[in-house]
Amino acid sequence: MSLDAYIAGLPKAELHLHIEGSLEPELMFELAQRNGVAIPFDSVEAVRAAYDFSNLQDFLDIYYAGANVLLTRRDFEDLAFAYFQRAAADNVRHAEIFFDPQTHTDREVPFAVVVEGLIAGMERAKAELGVTSGLILSFLRHLSEDEAFATLEMAKPYLHHFIGVGLDSSEVGHPPSKFQRVFAASRELGLKLCAHAGEEGPPAYVHEALDLLHIDRMDHGNRSMEDEGLIQRLAKEQMTLTVCPLSNLKLCVVKDLKDHPVPEMLRRGLHVTLNSDDPAYFGGYVNANYARLAEAVGLTREQVTQIAINSFEGSFLDEADKAARIAEVKAYASV
């Protein structure tokens, strides 16, 4: 069996997926038409051409523009289920997805509409596709901590739907320390904590995420490799890193996939997982991230298997579910 075929059948979890970033051009056009929303593109091809960006901010500009077509509960359900269909095709058995409520509430889309639509899509995915999932509320770091607190307050009636909170959007100039109090408040509410750090931001941001936000999981973390003490700490603590190779390539975090730090991360004992981030914009869902990185850097079958095991170990599933999922990976690997 080729490595690509092995990857295709490998049970895996996805831990770094922005549901708004799975909005494919075809669905964007369909929702724009359904909702009577004008978009600045006259064809699916024009949208794909606009996806030729080279940095995080240019990507975010089109990402937020695309989100304008999402208005109703049905829109959010359709968005979520479309992602889960692609995830199931990649043998993703569990996904923990981010959503950005402020992207929608700032457009006067009610919080309830967003959450109820996403939850409906998640429940449908479990029933029809056998894919389980969890929902992570992400704060937009280019906005203020007061606005994050307002979002957390808005979320309180729906807390039973969330497994955690995250921190995303423009990283540089918006260090984790800016959100220290709202993360502490989220922890008190029983939520798990994760944050984007060390994608474009410096290793100092990774230190802040660990020491000030007290995160349970690190999103990206690439630039940790510039700090020897940080490498040793992450390895010792077995902090899960949700690495996103095709995103890193598209946003020029790495110039070439051959330069990606995953092999060195693995060599140094870091708890690496592979994920698709914003797959509609970055050119590939989970299996493409595994396969293209494996080809570029020469990952072995054993390394790929370990990354899949890491994805379940690093999830927020309970210990019994983790053990069952990891057993599935090991059974697949032994055939």
Overview of the structural elements:
It is built from 17 helices and 8 strands. It is of the alpha/beta class. Strands 1-2-3-4-5-6-7-8 form an 8-stranded parallel β-sheet, with helices on both faces. The longest helix has 19 residues, at 111-129.
Radius of gyration: 19 Å
**Strand-pairing-aware structural class:** alpha/beta
Give the biggest sheet.
Answer: 8 strands, parallel
Q: How big a fraction of the residues is strand? A: 5-15%
Distance between the termini: 11 Å
Instruction: State the share of residues found in helices, binned by percent.
Output: 40-55%
Encode the helix/strand succession as letters.
Answer: HEHHHHEHHEHEHEHEHEHHEHHHH
Strand order of the largest sheet: 1-2-3-4-5-6-7-8
Helical segment count: 17
The pLDDT mean sits at 96
**Number of E-type strands:** 8
Could you name the ranges where pLDDT drops below 50 across 5 or more consecutive residues? none
Shape: globular
Nutshell version of this structure?
This protein is of the alpha/beta class.
Annotation keywords:
335 residues; alpha/beta; 8-stranded parallel β-sheet; 17 helices
Blueprint (SSEs and pairs):
Elements: H1 3-9, E1 12-18, H2 25-35, H3 44-50, H4 56-66, H5 73-89, E2 92-99, H6 101-105, H7 111-129, E3 132-140, H8 145-155, E4 162-168, H9 180-188, E5 192-197, H10 203-211, E6 217-220, H11 228-237, E7 240-243, H12 245-250, H13 262-267, E8 271-274, H14 279-282, H15 286-297, H16 301-313, H17 319-334
Parallel strand pairs: 1-2, 2-3, 3-4, 4-5, 5-6, 6-7, 7-8
